[in-house]
Amino acid sequence: MEDISRSWWLLLVRGIAAIVFGILALIWPGLTLLVLVIFFGAYALVSGVFALMAGFRHGARSRAWLIISGILGILAGIVAFIWPGLSSLALLFIIAFWAILTGVAEVVAGIQLRKVIDNEWMLIVGGVLSVIFGLLLLGWPGAGLLSLLWLIGVFAIMYGIAMIVLSIRVRNFTPTPGMP
């Protein structure tokens, strides 16, 4: 714990960076979306190149899947750079369908768990809310993208505040006698 308390300022810097990012995300949501798509494109491109390289180095059994994965990653990265608007919309649709499918799964699980646990209705309500969220994203994709960016911004600010508070608590840490 003493090591952590000596580097309390790292937590403080993380917190400040998160707050700055959150504020910028709220002020410039369009720019934030573009940066996120570019980061995704860079990640997909690099990941695709390395998967492709691994595909040519591995045995015949896993070679095809790695090569396919690498090609898809490279294509996804190129698409993100050439058509960032399309990429951001595709990301929104992935999130929407994920929310709908997991929501349905939670409703089904809640119904099946009715005989096993109490308060299963909370799982069902959570599933229904997830389905509604996904449907709203599909129905209003522009507003959905903006809402997701706002959520990211608010989350970053709250996370930053938590890191700053933690850094202050860790900085003021004094070991209790007899504690290791």
UniProtKB/TrEMBL annotation:
The chain crosses the membrane at residues 7-27, 33-52, 64-83, 89-109, 121-142, 148-170. The keyword Transmembrane helix applies. Keywords: Membrane, Transmembrane, Transmembrane helix. One of its GO terms (cellular component) is plasma membrane. It comes from the Bacteria. It holds the Pfam family DUF308. PANTHER family: PROTEIN HDED. This is Uncharacterized membrane protein HdeD, DUF308 family.
